[in-house]
User: Fold this.
Amino acid sequence: MKQLTLLFIVLSLGSCDFRSSNKKDNPLNQDLVVVADSISLMMSKYHYNPAELATDEYLDLKKKVMGLAETVETKQEFIDGFNELWKNGPFSHVTLGTAERNAGEMAEFIDSLRVGDHSVSLQWMDTTAILTVTTMTGVDTKERVFEAYHKIAEKETTSLVIDLRNNTGGTFAGVPLIGHVLTDSVDAGIFVSRKWWETHTRAPKLEDVQDLVPWQGWSLKSFWHDVQDKPLTRVRFGPMQPHFDGPVYVLISDKSASAAEFAVDALAHEEKVTLIGETTAGEMLSQKMFDLPQGLQLSLPIAEYYSTRIGRIEGAGVQPDIAVDHSAAKDLALSLIDGMKLDDALAQAQQKVDKTMVQPLADETIYLFGNMNDWGKKWNSTPRFEYKGNGIYETTTTFKKGRYEFKIAPMNWNFDYGAKPDQEKVAIGQSTALARVPGSSNLIIAIEEETTLTFSLDVSDEKASLLQIIKN
Assistant:
């Protein structure tokens, strides 16, 4: 009996060893282990501060990435898992994706990119101009900002609202956004590369760059080269014509990130500028792309930024002068422009926020289920919707080229939002009426190329639920 028991234990241990090593012996996992090693090598060679790669937080995350490489079943699962881990990483601006073009070509592509007319809009409320900028990327974004300020100058404009609440950054379109508001030149900040940290243990100060010529230009490719070539890069903005001299209200949220934070902080040097909303994302680093094996591409931060006004923005963000939920920031600004006292305007804004945040689905959490995530079986790639107020739930995810079927539902599937009998296909940019019944038909979307999409579900009217899919 003891011999049989011993034999069973030996066989069990052998079986466990075989199963645990099975994926490590898989050619895909072996390839992804090489990718994970390459990521670590790129970090150690190009990251702006080697000391940050010695922290327990970074080393633990590095170990988790290697574990991911050894166990995933597909390359996409590795990409998704990596990006999910880095959402809460020790520093921002680290992403992994499939290389559409090599890193050198990407820089040139971004320098010439035109993103479309959705990037900038200009509206009017009597003599108040409302300038909304949703990205800092795009040659055409820069052009539209210049054009907007000329229109503002042509019209009798007494106040300006700059809305950056949904601006997650980009490149240099923020330069004219700042310049047309400035009265005098301002030393806004300093980009800091690993060459500084290799010889210093303290943060840089303004006097460290007084003898440096400020960086100028529009090319991201040139900026990447210059910021890595020098320990410090001086950032100085000068006034641009036409100059706007009236009060300026800048709307910010916790989504305002990277180059948007850079612009917000620079604008705040002006006394006539008031920041309204939430503390920004605190993701102010400069990232660069690097090619990896297996057709993958890594973005990692090559420089950090120190504001001369508030210090390091990464991890801290830019705080508003008037704190209020981002959904009420514009109304608050317009109330102040109309002459309402701040306390009264804040009370009115809070009433709106309280009403807005009453969720139609109560405490129910809903998800985007479909064949892209095996209908929820792949937990790390099942997007969860967040409530944005006014009956709207949103989630953002990336699709590869293909045909996808999907529905929106809670985890218990007590109900689901699906297709009405007369319409199954949905189109990007158009609103689609949904049916809310258990067992509704699947919705269908065709993706022509790898695309990041935001799914916006409006259930403010219980009898007419609408879905809009927006291309990011």
About this structure: The mean pLDDT is 91. The longest helix spans residues 2-22. The domain at 366-471 is CATH 2.60.40 (Immunoglobulin-like). The chain has three domains: 21-90, 117-323, 366-471.
